[in-house]
Structures are given as structure tokens and as C-alpha cells.
Amino acid sequence: MFIPSSVAEIAEQVGLNHIYLNRIFKLSTGKTLSEYLNIYRIEQSKDMLCNTNHSVAEISKLLGYNDVRSYIRFFKKFVGVTPGDYRN
């Protein structure tokens, strides 16, 4: 599963300047690419928590987070509970 961790990574993959890519994405969707990427990663995370036996650490790694603590903070900021609490 390839989940890009940044707008710059996506821009490099598609061969566009990251500023230009952000601008055309926002014009098309009403959201910045960063916002969309965050939403996508959270939705993938929720799915993995509910439908796999992967540990929270494994999920954070699969989703491209540098460490499990930053993943847990990010998840709690967007969802309101920790990944472990969400799973239960």
C-alpha cells in the first residue's frame, strides 16, 4: 500500500511543482491536498483498526508516520480518542 506522507512526495510522483499542485487541487476540490491527505490517512487508519489485527505501531508505520507517538497524537486530534480506544 502506497500512502504518500507529504504533498511534496505526491508532487514529485506526478512531476509537478508542489505549490502548483496544491493550487489546482484546492480549486478542484475546495480542500488543500494536505487536508485531503490527512483525511485519507485517518480513514485508512480507522479501517485498519476495525478490520485488521495490526498493532497501533504497525498501522502507524504502514501509514508513513515517523513514530507511533506522533501517529497517536495526530489520530486523537482528528478523531477525539486514541487509536487504541477507537479500536475498542
Describe, in plain words, how this protein is organized in 3D.
The chain is built from six helices and no strands. The protein is mainly α. The chain has a single domain, classed as Homeodomain-like (Arc Repressor Mutant, subunit A), CATH 1.10.10. The model has no long low-confidence stretch (mean pLDDT 93).
Keyword list:
elongated; 6 helices; mainly alpha; 88 residues; single chain
Distance between the termini: 25 Å
Could you give a short account of the major beta sheet? none
Percent range for β-strand residues: under 5%
Please bin the fraction of helical residues: over 70%
CATH topology: Arc Repressor Mutant, subunit A
Would you list the SSEs in sequence order as H and E? HHHHHH
Q: Can you identify the CATH superfamily?
A: Homeodomain-like
Note the quaternary state here: single chain
Count of discrete domains? 1
| Average predicted confidence as pLDDT | 93
> Which CATH class is shown?
Mainly Alpha
User: Structural class of the helices, strands and pairings?
Assistant: mainly alpha
Ranges where pLDDT stays below 50 over 5 or more residues in a row are none
- The tally of beta strands, per DSSP, is 0
Radius of gyration: 14 Å
Give the name of the CATH architecture.
Orthogonal Bundle
Shape: elongated
Give the helix tally: 6
Write a concise synopsis of the structure shown.
With 88 residues, this protein is an all-alpha fold.
